[in-house]
Amino acid sequence: MSRLARYSSSALQLRKLYIATLSFPSSFSTTAPHPSPPPIHVGLTECAGRGVFASRRISAGELIHTAQPIVSHPSLSSLHTVCYFCLRKLPSLQASQTVSFCSTQCEQQSKVTFLTIHSSIHTVQPVNITGWNKNTSSASIVWKEGMQGLKYPLLVKRMACQVISGAVSSDVLDILQPEISSSDRISKMKKEVALLKNTFVDSDIGSEQMAFLTEEWYAGVLARIRINAFRIEFAVGPYEDLLSLAAASVEAEAAVGNAVYVLPSLYNHDCDPNVNIVWVENVDAKVKALRDIEEGEELRICYIDASMDYKARQRILYEGFGFHCNCPRCVSKD
């Protein structure tokens, strides 16, 4: 397949995913029922593969678009203090030792997307997502204790629940760039997928419903989640104060969760970015312009803490994302 044909296929898949994301039922969406297309388009860059470009002039401080996640999960430290579905912070009186929701809508939507699985005879079987309540099955406990660094496996588990329930297709993340996994990690994945299958079996999920859950599927999803998951940190300060939001997103001490998006994952990196992604009250990602952006200019975000020195940025970007940054700031070794 030619490069142009591959790009055309990816562009068509992106368009379908973007439309699906806009129409995906969500009780916490801040977008209008029929939002206008954002002033951006996806194209090929000279050296970084796909990128996001301005389709018109964008003013500093402008909200470019809002994105809903394909999959998200609260961090274990925030499990009882944020909504289990939209990650909105709960009032202190509502926090408990079991998972909670900020609204009836979020609770109902969670049942549709991942908390319950509809069997072929239309009965509803609850699925233990976290492995934390007192009725946890032994397989789920083993799965939880067998993981080292739970945030990514928990996202994979929730994604599997969404596939089983029919909320998303099993290939929904295929458009995203995967991480190159080491042989040790691949070996560990084989154990993880076996434990995950046992967890579903204990929840009375049939083999036909789990047909997609192969070692290849698990490895592919995990590889894409590891390199594309965003750390959700709620910005502190007035929404209008863009600089406060950007600084708060970097300086926050603890994340409330992690999420994977389609369009935000296509933004390339720059140590001096022209756009920033912030989270104000829930898992919806808001992409805002940090300065004026001309039509045709590529929009870039910073994957790391931009205040670090040159050597630290280069090391973290290579170890975490597999590339050496050649942005103007790094070329000058600023």
UniProtKB/TrEMBL annotation:
Q: Name one GO cellular component term.
A: nucleus
Stored Pfam families: SET
| Residues annotated as domain SET | 38-304
Q: From what superkingdom does this record's organism come?
A: Eukaryota
Tell me where the transmembrane regions lie.
Answer: none
**Could you list the residue ranges forming a coiled coil in this record?**
none
Question: What SMART domains does UniProt report for this protein, alphabetically?
Answer: SET
The protein's name in its UniProt record: Histone-lysine N-methyltransferase ATXR4
Provenance organism: Sesamum angustifolium
